[in-house]
Amino acid sequence: MQQPALGILIGGSSHVGKSTLARALASSLGRELISTDDLGRHPGRPWPSVRPQVAEYYASLTDETIHWFLKVHHENMWPRIRQIIESRLKHAQPFVLEGAALRPEYMAQFEQEDILPLFLYADDAFLRRRMLEESRRADADGTKAAIIDKFIERSIRENREMLEAAGTADIRCIDVAAPGTLDALVKEFSAA
């Protein structure tokens, strides 16, 4: 098996395991780990506590506006992300970059021999269950529960739309709901 690409990009919606896989791959391969979360903040998940501006964001905007704003946020981040990728490639610095802002349509812009784009996804029920548990939705009051529900629906919609885009862009899609998938990926790349 040949050495993995210089840059490994891991995209996907919230709660699909991007950070977990990226940490494991970076550690196993001895690569720099970069997260798009460190580059810019979107209102994000409304737990464990809800900041007032995050509560206002989810409570006052429509689902369509929340979805639109997320896509605009990712679009605004892309020039900086692209700059990071190009710099690492120019200096031949192996890296793993993960984040929801790595939308399939952006990852597809790179040459396949230098960059390996991966898209993590799961079915709606798996993602919903994972987010309900982590957010402790069952313990939330009415207002917080409604905000959590909006975040979950936004994330599931993103998962569906980005999965379709990844398929169109011929990006390798990994179903994280299948047991052992992330461990198998780490072994696959570590054996290279």
Automatic annotation (TrEMBL):
Mind telling me which InterPro entries this protein's record contains?
A: P-loop_NTPase
Superkingdom of the source species: Bacteria
A Pfam family hit: AAA_33
The molecule here is called AAA family ATPase
Q: Which organism is it from?
A: Ensifer adhaerens
Q: What is the lineage of its organism?
A: Bacteria, Pseudomonadati, Pseudomonadota, Alphaproteobacteria, Hyphomicrobiales
